[in-house]
Input
Amino acid sequence: MDQKNFQIYDMLPLYYEGKLNEDQVLEVQQWIALSDENRNIALQMKEIYQTTDALYVLNHVDTENALKVVHGKMNIRKDYRIWVWAQRVAAILFIPLLIVTFLKYFSKEDNKVGYIKLATNPGMIASATLPDGTVVTLNSNSSLVYPSRFEGESRKVQLNGEAYFKVTKDKRHPFIVNTPQKAAIRVYGTQFDVEAYTNDGKVTATLVTGSIAMAYTKEDNKWCECKIEPGEEIVYSAKEQNVKVAKAAVDVAISWKDGKLIFNNTPLNEVLNSLSKRFDVDFVVKNPKCNEGSFTGVLEKQRLDRILEYFRISSNMHFRYVDGNNIRQEKQIIEVY
Output
């Protein structure tokens, strides 16, 4: 490796922090544009920087001043204890980062319940224990909002993204997962997976053990419930306002939580969707014939470029990284042709 590359590697963290002068920024951008390999290195460095930067903020934030700015008239010492507790709920599976954000704080009233938002960065997986002992694992780019303590007749949480739940059994207080599509999963004590991203028009729930029901509204605005059994999945369409139940490939559906990607004669669009969530990229299929393909196999801890090379060799598909006008674009775009 030549001295030039070493210099660029030293400059990349400063580049993403915005601490380089104009000449240095131009030098880095020219180096990135030289090859796909350089671009991939730069994108990986960007992800590492974002991870370490967020972790630094989490560990070094001036908690009391931050809380004063957000909510000036609250009991600081009480909220400080809550903040410390919130940091401890995170038991990270793969990357040591779980963003913890308060949506609503305790006030001076002791019986006031606050809400906590747990969120994973793109490409990350994290796990946390809720106040009732329920264990939830969040997939990439997902968030979960829940109260600091469960009160009332049910235990309600709000999910945006994908999560695997291991719910503490409590027949008198059902566990309810609300989604952006205005459908909900009603649970009493079980293990299941839910996928419900805001920009997706459907909610998919896969049941591992126990029993769950999908609650949704029909065209007449009446609420309906549809139960499923272990080994089944239920898909709610927000557009059609109906549900479909089918046998599920459970190991495939929940493989993400163990850091794996399992495909079993899986259509290309589903494969690309899984890769998109895992690696925080967007795929654009330029050749319609590619959609006729399907894949079978297990991927574990491989880099994206290695995975795409597997696909190229096995199917003669090709992938091309698309250069954007701005290297700081949110997602890398990859064309499939």
